[in-house]
Write a structure and sequence with these properties.
The structure is a single chain. The protein has 297 residues and is mainly α. It has a single domain (2-295), classed as Farnesyl Diphosphate Synthase. It has 13 helices and no strands. Helix 3 (37-65) runs parallel beside helix 6 (120-132). The chain is globular, with a radius of gyration of 19 Å. The relative contact order is 0.13. Its main location: membrane. It is a multi-pass membrane protein.
């Protein structure tokens, strides 16, 4: 039971939610010079519950569709295979997804009651996206590309900032957009090994529609744009000069872009670059968070 729940929750991937909330906390400290410990913890619970819910729904629906039997498993794609080991426990995975979604709804409504119903403009789309991502969004290349970034950037990160600061400044939008590009890229690259399997169950994402090589160019384009957004934000003083610290991540980003373009069709050799992409998705926002704390000293 415990192994099942841990497996479908995908704990190794939950660190991304921690990074999003850490970035929100750092901006709150930079803009208001205060740390709201209890509220930050509550926001973290909502973020983790949302992430666990979408993971568990994904595991459940991929098992039910038969996709789990078709995918090539890597540390970063293809699902965990947990329900292949416990096929009679699929309902428990669905229950975990539903319970954590109810936690998101309950705490989200409480936060909206405390801080203003305007938060529902972020909360309601977030709840809908959690449920429909696996079943419906994956059937549209554009939505499939945008949804992960919107979920973690424009909903999770922006929502956390809104709760912790009470406003959405140019700084907040900049950070959310950068996270959005990074996370959309994260899911885009992770789709490369699953092209043949995803095609069999009716999914349509860019690696299927355009091919891996063309999708690799989209990947590099989004990566470049994320750094251009950072430079623009510093130039416009939406972010402090200290935020150029995040440009240090251009070093792994360069090797990542080069590797993805070269190995897009060579899946065994692509896996290390998928790992590097995961690392970049953590290091880039964390560098921004550190820069904001540094600027506030």
């Amino acid at each position: 039971m415990v192994k099942l729940l841990i497996g479908v929750a995908r704990p190794n991937f939950l660190t991304l939610s921690l990074v999003c909330v850490a970035l929100a906390v750092a901006l709150g400290w930079y803009e208001a010079q205060r740390l709201q410990g209890t509220l930050s913890l509550l926001v973290l619970v909502v973020a983790l519950a949302a992430h666990i819910s979408v993971n568990a729904f994904n595991e459940y629906f991929d098992f039910r569709s038969g996709l789990d039997y078709l995918t090539r498993k890597t540390p970063f794609s293809g699902g965990t295979g947990t329900l292949l080991k416990y096929p009679d426990k699929a309902l428990q995975a669905l229950m975990l997804a539903s319970v954590t979604l109810l936690i998101v709804i309950g705490l989200g409504l409480w936060l909206s009651f405390q801080q203003g119903w305007e938060l529902l403009w972020i909360g309601v789309p977030g709840v809908i996206m959690i449920y429909i991502y696996t079943q419906y969004i994956n059937r549209s290349p554009v939505f499939c590309l945008l949804a992960p970034g919107v979920g973690f950037g424009l909903l999770m990160t922006l929502g956390a900032i809104w709760v912790l600061t009470g406003e959405l400044t140019s700084s907040a939008w900049t950070l959310a957009v950068i996270v959005a590009f990074l996370v959309s890229n994260l899911l885009l690259l992770n789709q490369f090994p699953d092209v043949e399997a995803d095609k069999q169950v009716g999914r349509k994402h860019f690696p299927i529609v355009l091919g891996r090589s063309a999708s690799a160019k989209i990947f590099v384009g989004l990566l470049v744009v994320s750094y251009l957004v950072l430079l623009l934000a510093v130039w416009q003083e939406w972010l402090p000069l200290h935020s150029l610290l995040a440009l240090l991540t251009l070093i792994p980003a360069f090797f990542l872009a080069k590797g993805v373009l070269a190995k897009a069709e060579q899946l065994d050799e692509l896996v290390p670059f998928m790992g590097l992409n995961v690392a970049l998705c953590h290091l880039y926002p964390l560098a921004l968070a550190v820069s904001l704390v540094w600027a506030s000293i």
